[in-house]
Amino acid sequence: MRLTINTRERDIVPEPDESLLVTLRDRLFLTGAKQGCDRGECGACTVLLNGEPVYSCLTLTVACDGDHVTTVEGLARGDDLDPLQAAFIAHDAVQCGFCTPGQLMAATALLARNPAPDDAAIVEAMSGNLCRCGTYPKIAQAILTTAAVRREGGA
Question: Are 48 and 90 part of one and the same domain?
Fold first, then answer.
């Protein structure tokens, strides 16, 4: 089967019951998506599948033939961080960092569908991504800052 992962086409022969998370981490060595709960409860494994956030621990790779997957590794362009990644750093929204890749992917999807989210939209969009360090206000501020920069033509 063929997947496009971070704009690169990949031919993969997964096991029938193999999760997308296992494919990404163990076969392709893209370790940004974290293995947290394996039950779709924490959001640490969130990736974008055809632009929509999914829990890669619950998504079977065989169901993704022909699809486009974006992982946190696909956000930066070379050495240049995505503005959202830079905002997470600037607002100290990374703390321990375990949830950060999933948070970034959920926030990326939010900003793609809503370039001017309010607090309620951010809470709703991020509700499936848990942060044990409690940096939710900082994450929200990073998202708001990125949205403002993008609306002003900064990225």
Answer: no
